[in-house]
Amino acid sequence: ALSHFTVYAEPRTAEKMIGLTIDLRRYLPNNTTGAICNLSGMEMPVIKMEDDETFKQTLVRVKQSMDKIKSRNPGLYS
């Protein structure tokens, strides 16, 4: 995580938004669309970068944020 800040010269306590595309076809009956269409949703978890945190610690926090999103029907409420 700290190498990212060295390369981009950003404040180490900045918050980062991670844009994720969610495939909404999983919510359709029998996973069928019937036509060509855009069935995507978005989620934007915000991760605060901590000054004294290792990459592994940051990764654990990202995973926790993703687990929370995955537990509540991702893409439907974005």
Could you please describe the fold and organization of this structure?
The structure is a single chain. The protein is of the alpha+beta class. The protein has one domain. It has helices spanning 2-8, 55-70; strands spanning 15-17, 20-23, 40-43, 46-48. The protein has a two-stranded antiparallel ribbon with strand order 1-4. A two-stranded antiparallel sheet has the order 2-3. It is elongated, with a radius of gyration of 16 Å.
- Which strand order do you get reading across the main beta sheet? 1-4
How helix-rich are the residues, as a percent range?
25-40%
Radius of gyration, Cα only, in angstroms?
16 Å
Q: Which band does the percent of strand residues land in?
A: 15-25%
Shape: elongated
Q: Give the biggest beta sheet.
A: 2 strands, antiparallel
- Cα-to-Cα separation, first versus last residue: 27 Å
Low confidence ranges:
none
Structural class: alpha+beta
* Count, helices: 2
Give the averaged pLDDT, no decimals: 79
The number of domains is: 1
Order of helices and strands: HEEEEH
Protein name: Condensation protein
Organism: Bacillus cereus
Topology:
Blueprint: H1 2-8, E1 15-17, E2 20-23, E3 40-43, E4 46-48, H2 55-70
Antiparallel strand pairs: 1-4, 2-3
Protein name: Condensation protein
Produce a short descriptive summary:
This protein is α+β, with helices and mostly antiparallel strands and 78 residues long. The chain has 2 helices and 4 strands, in the order H-E-E-E-E-H. The longest helix is centred in the last third of the chain and has 16 residues.
